[in-house]
Design brief:
243 residues, mainly alpha, Arc Repressor Mutant, subunit A, Four Helix Bundle (Hemerythrin (Met), subunit A), 2 domains, 12 helices, 70% helix
Length: 243
């Protein structure tokens, strides 16, 4: 069967509205302009605008009621996973603590799916890690390998929800990993994690894998904050001083 192509004008309108919400033009709790005016502002037809609004209402960005203004919801508290995915796609509007918060969530999720992976597929985990001792010592190699490892571990866990959550951050994960792995200390830290995880899989010790992962994820948050501070310092050095 043939699939219908995406309605590109509606997707564009949806993206522009999300940007306007995230950058504060339409802050949480505010009402959007009337439909006719909003369609004019976005450069789309009213049917196209309605389609975009319905998508945003479904995902938790907007509250839509017949005969009443459309209100921007508190998407942090009322949004769905689709909201999280959209926020990641608009990375230039991310709150400063977003990545740290995301790593805190990973600190809760990774020990669970790694424990299940070692419990259910220890040989597969061991084989997956066999080549990790020979990774090229550069950020690109580690970013790609770390993504592949966690993705494969979610699959080996047997719980597809872990994989679906991780998939929502694929590009963003690897972009942030390039920053994280700029520091040789971060690369050595992950290399130690890969070795210890391989040993836990070899021993079929799921509890050890879980405990070790929890500790390593906590360390990763500290290393990420250090990487962010280092990036800020580099940017400040590059900015021309005010005359």
């Amino acid at each position: 069967m043939d699939w219908d192509p995406p309605t590109k004008p509606a997707e564009l309108a949806e993206s522009r509205l999300i940007e306007a919400i995230l950058d504060g033009r339409f802050p949480i709790g505010s009402n959007l302009p009337a439909e006719r005016e909003l369609a004019r502002m976005l450069g789309v037809t009213r049917p196209t605008l309605r389609e975009a609004l319905q998508r945003l209402g479904r995902d938790g960005w907007l509250e839509i009621h017949q005969g009443r203004p459309t209100r921007v919801r508190n998407y942090w508290q009322e949004g769905s996973l689709a909201v999280l995915g959209s926020i990641v796609e608009h990375a230039s509007h991310l709150p400063e603590d977003f990545v740290a918060n995301l790593l805190s969530v990973r600190q809760l999720l990774a020990p669970a799916y790694i424990r299940l992976a070692v419990q259910n597929q220890p040989a597969q985990v061991r084989e997956l890690l066999a080549s990790y001792a020979r990774l090229d010592d550069n950020p690109q190699a580690y970013a790609a390998a770390d993504w592949q490892l966690h993705h494969r571990l979610t699959i080996a866990s047997g719980n597809p929800v872990f994989t679906l959550i991780l998939n929502g951050f694929c590009d963003f994960y690897q972009t942030m990993a390039l920053i994280y792995f700029q520091d040789p200390v971060s690369r050595r830290h992950s290399q130690g994690f890969y070795r210890q995880l391989q040993l836990a899989a070899q021993a079929k010790d799921a509890a050890r894998a879980e405990a070790m992962t929890r500790e390593v994820m906590a360390d990763s948050l500290t290393l990420w904050n250090r990487a962010v501070d280092r990036n800020k310092e580099a940017i400040n050095r590059q900015e021309p001083k005010a005359q």
